[in-house]
Amino acid sequence: NNWSGTVLKLCEPLNSTITTFQGRLCSKTSDLCQLLQPVVSMTNLLKYKNWYRMEGAEDKDHFRDLELLKERCSIFNKNRGKNGNDDGVGGAGLAPVCTIKDHTNDVTSVDFAGRCLLATGSSDKSVRLYKWQVDDSFVEVGYSPLLGHTYGVNCVSFSPFGTKLASASTDGSTIIWDVKTGERLCSLQPSSEAAVRVCAFSPNSVLLSAGGDDDMAGIWDVSTLSLLRRMCGDESTVTSVSFTPDSCYLVTGTSGGELRVWDARYGHSVPLAMKAEAHDLGVSSVHFSPAFGKEEHGIIGKQYLLASGGQDTELQLWVVEIESQVLGRDNIPTITPHHSLCGHSAPIMSVRFSASGLILASASGDKTIRLWDPIKLTALGILEGHNRYVTSCAFSDDGALVAAGSGDRVVHVWRVDGATGSLSQMSTHAGGQRKLLVRFPSQKFRENIKLVDWNCEDVCGWLVEQGLAEYSHNFRTHAIDGRELLTMTDEILEQKLGVGMSFTVAFSMFYVH
After folding, report:
1. What is the CATH number of domain 3-52+451-506?
2. pTM of the model
3. WD repeat positions in this chain (predicted)?
């Protein structure tokens, strides 16, 4: 569960070129990123898998271990209470490790692909792409900026595997770009030509949703670029969209304050559920936790944790639940209030969970980004540095970095190193009390065995342990051991081992340790 620790183990064969200092990686060669890229690519590829449950341990053990993890990775303990704040959060926060000042107008959106790529969108009509460096700086790639919009860019969103980037604009179009080359692949432009405010890919990479001022949200097939359906609301701008972790459902938030749940798979044109007045003055942003589910009486149901931010300065958590299928009845989703997190003094403009689901970030017009523990429902810390409203925030996939864009035309990046645990799923126990189950790292990592020393059977055993037994035959046939695993490229994974993006359609949720 400790990504940085895992990376260090992956790097152990490179001791001659890498030194570590207090968990920070320092490289003496520019080839480090290229060397690690195959591992990062495989991590992204295997990121989504079916719901799982850890057995053989008391709930109290999970809580105890989670507490140890959270204590070890606590991001702002040193700042808490220094200024006498009632919420225990230090006012000073952390200083940004990187500041980007390339845009000439408001930065409206930021998004990460893994840790290696950062995308930014701006009212200056441009999209920019940056590559991460080992000193936590970001260098703009050669083909950036991406120019094609005739009005401001409102949202940027990477596909789950970082091969495509979507950008939504006031010009009424959503452009899909090739991340490798910067080539404009297509422009999705509904007939209404209304401003497009938001866009998001489904976690399985199959669908893309976009919505805006025409009161509608569309769903496109990413492979065929065909419009599958358009979902009409009530005369309110669609301000935010988010898919459930299994890509089955879509939630839209509107300027009228409503939350609506739609079926993303089938052609239903009416919402399956709606929460009116979720935010008094309008919903600004919604995002599903990527790691949330439940099990009751041995039956896997569908229960998702949704965060929403609004113009009313409130950060709300909701439980969106689809009951287990009953013969002869349609499943009817429900949206139930879970908790309200207070702290911002101005409208919340962006909310985002970390990939582990253990940290929630909210960006606000009060010029700050706040980090929250969505399990304990407590504040973790404040990120400061912007001098105007903060429009967008995003986590790197490993949870180590948080980026934010602002009306001050600046992008700040902070190192938080906060997402080291893996929130697996939510269970309902006696008395209706909800408890969290946490899955911990592979036994190989617990035994501190170097990946480079794994033999073929170790690798295949790891695949089986992670629920990926279908790949073990090919790995065994080609005698893939730990040393070779370190040098895997995307081409080898797809062509030699049969592990390619075509397989991801069957994936819904997975966490690689």
Report:
1. 1.10.150.50
2. 0.67
3. 100-131, 146-187, 189-230, 231-272, 341-373, 383-424
